[in-house]
Every structure is written in C-alpha cells, then in structure tokens.
Fold this protein.
Amino acid sequence: MSTTTTTQTVDAIVIGAGFGGIQATHRLGNEFGMTVKAFDKAAGPGGTWYWNRYPGAMSDTESHIYRFSFDKEMLQEDTWSNTYLMQADILANIERVMDRYDLWQYFEFNTEVTSAIYLEDAELWEVTTSKGDVYRAKYVVNALGLLSAVNLPDIKGMDTFEGEILHTGAYPEGKDLTGLRVGVIGSGSTGTQVVTALGPKVKHLTHFIRTPQYSVPSGFRPVDEAEVLETRENFDAIWDQVKNSAVAFGFDESTTPALSVSEEERQRVYQEAWERGGGFRFMFGTFGDIATDLEANETAAAFIRSKIRETVKDEEKARKLTPTDLYARRPLCDGGFFETFNRDNVDVVALKETPIEEIVPNGIRTADGTVHELDVIIFATGFDAVDGNYRRMNIRGRNGIHINEYWDGQPTSFLGVATANFPNWFMVLGPNGPFTNLVPSIETQVEWFTDFIKHAEDNGLASIEPSQESVDEWTKTCSEIADMTVFGKVDSWIFGANVAGKTRSVLFYVGGLKNYRDILKDIADNDYRGFELRSAVAASVAA
C-alpha cells in the first residue's frame, strides 16, 4: 500500500510562535496579504514563555516595555500590576495579541519543522514537519528562539536516579515540590529565580554552583493605577527613548566614567541603583565604562561582593556565593536570592571545590564523598543559545549545503537576520543580532526584514540573500566590538561557553540598539547594500 504526500504551496512559512513568529506572521499575513503557514512544536503560543513555567519565572525587563510597541491602541488598553511580569502575565499578553489579530488561523501547534531544503530550480523552500506534511514557500522566517534549545549536561549516573529530573526550560506546569528535597544545578538568571522561589517551600534545597554570579535586587514591587496611567500617557516618549538607547531597558545609559568621581559619590550611585533595582540598570545606568574598563568594572564588582557578604549571615555560605572574577556576564537581578541562603533549609555547594562525581539513586555524590540526598534534581543549565535550534534541524541552502557545514563551528550572519547561501531565509535574533532587551530588538528585526520581503515582492525579485563578503564583514565588526568589552573575557552563554563541546564564538552585536537600527536604515536606504538581489526575469532567463 502506498501513501501519497500532498505538497502545499504558500508565500511564506514562519517557524516559531514567540514574539518574533507572531509579529512576522501578523505583518506578512494580515498587513501584506501574503499566504502564510506558521508552526510551533508547543501546544500553544508563547515561545520561551510557553516552556519556562518554573517557579519564579519572571522577565527582568520592566513590565511596560516587555511587550509589543506597534499597536498604540493596545498599549492604552494594557495594564500590569507589578514592575515586572511573571511568566503567566507574559503568556496572557501574547495570547491576547493572537486573539486581537486573529493569528490562530495561521498557526499549527504540536508540529515541529524537521527540515527546510532550498530547491534551486524552483527557487522555493521545501519544508517538512514532524507530521510528515510537506510545504513549499518562497520565504522562510525562522523565529526559533534565542533561548529555547535546552542544554542538559551529560552527568554520569543520570539514568540511575530514583527521583525526578526536571529542566527549567521544559518545566511541567503547576509542579508542586512542597516538602521535598530539591537540588538546583545552575546559577544564571533562571537558577537564581528558582532558588529564590523554592527556598521557602521545600523541605531542603541544595544549590550546586559552578560559577558564582553578580546579582542585584530586581526592584520588584506593586504598581498602582496612577503609575500605569502616567506610563500610558508617556508611551510615545518612552518607546522613542527605548529604541534610541543602547540596551533598550527604558533608562538613560550613563556616560560618566566610574573613576571620574570620588569614592563617596561612586558608592552613593551604586547604592541608589541597588535600591532602585534592575540588573541592566546597575551595569549600564550607573557609570558608562563598567562594561569596557577593567578598573571601572572592579568598582561595581566590589560593591556587589560587599552586599553579598553583608546579606548572607553564614560566612561559609557567603564565601561560596561570592564571585571573584569579572562582572562580565549577562547582568542579573533577583527577588531575594542571597537572603534565601539565610534559611536553615537552604545550602550551597561550590562545584569548583567539590565537583559532581556522579548522580546516584538517592541524590548527587560530590568529589568529597558527600551524597546530597534529593527527591528532585532541577537543571537550570540554560540553553544552547542562538544557533542551537538551527543545528538540530535539517536545513540546506544552495548546492545542498547544510547549515552546520556552512557555519562550521561558528554561526555567522549579516545583521543577525540572514546569511549567505540561504536565499529568502530570515532569522529573528539570529547569530550576531543585538544584545539588548529582546522585544524591541525583535520588533526592529521583524519590521525590517518583512519590509524587505515586501520590497522584493513589489519589485519582482526571485531571491534576496547577503553576500559572503557582507557576512564576513559583519562578523568582523561584531568581534571587534566584543573585544572592546569585558564580556569576552569570561566564559558564558553569550559566547556559547555553557555548552560542552561547543566552539566559543561571538554570538551578539554589542554595539547597542540605536546603532543597530541606524545600520539597518542605512542599508535599506541604499538599495539593501550587502544583499544580492536576483530578479525573477533574470532567473527565468537563466533557467
């Protein structure tokens, strides 16, 4: 018995139902009238915020700017209760956008795209799903998620554990761990949130930390109606400031060098930022050279270290929690992380002193012979960031080249949105996109490349793709800027260093959102320089 696969043809395929996939689908389908088919392997929209349902999951961008800005009417209807949005709040807002623009009609959920292969003769992409369905489309938009490919370390004995193993990036909704013995591995943003949320609830919590982190208070607090109304009245100015700033977190970045003021003034500024809250605000809103000058960086690091020692009453716990290297990873903030370790039921294990030897049936054994007895192990070990999801798919461009072969250890792009040898193929937050508050960056990229797609359609172009020279030049630019900062001097997920076996490489443009937006505008204003534009007429002649 034979089965016949029917191939459906549409104008564009969108992969992913997070912020990027939703906006791309809305623009292409609703605004430009193109036929669009969109997929997500999850059972509903939300992207990262669909999967990350762990206790304490929260954005570290303030509530009023962790949302789309393109619908001014919706902004006037939006409301929020706290300075930051919890996971459920973000998901509810995303679903509201889906309803408002009737976007459900475009999406097929519980469906993973397994391959996307460029057919050169037809100048179309052939996309296959986990259900075996085949689609062809002129354009493919990859909104796969910057932080969505789960990174689960390979630790000896994992299969022998008699308890439950969880990962924060695929956390069961409503999972109750009250009264259990819990181990949390990982000390980034997610790890600090989980520990802070679970510490008061579980019987015992052991936090396994390889690299202690610099974290400052989040400043999480209730927001009253008057504050919401005032924000609504000023949204135009707020969004203008966000899009013309560097990190796009809604505050003015400082230009004052840390060492240009007295020690007393420096401490006052840091204390004020500590009380106000916000990780990016502390790093970029206090002084202008914390991220670029080693001496300035040390002044901020020393202040945070002093706060850790002041907060954590047990000296040994404080020692294990206090970082000693540069303040040069993604700026973290928390809702009482260090205070949590003042509880008798919360402990910390320094993995560089006593590494994990293996997971045993009743817990985790460390190199000193101690067996930490556990009912649940939570991996807060982050993601194979930026390029991880691409590498897990069968993506082939011109001449059948696989994306893994093309990237060969270092993911590259032009502008973080497209790359050579992959025509009409766009990425949201692809390699070497801007390192900022993500939603404004997503909006910037989606607006730009969907306008580019419309330009291609209006001008009868068969294919658009960046030249290899443009990709190489952009990679060089991103590397040069990264080398001017402290971020490249430590190992972190920003450079792919959290994944075993992954080649360390530059993954972001750290030149700021305003500069990035200016570059995009200049390229569009100059006939999309850096891209090879192939007309449909030329394509038919060549055929």
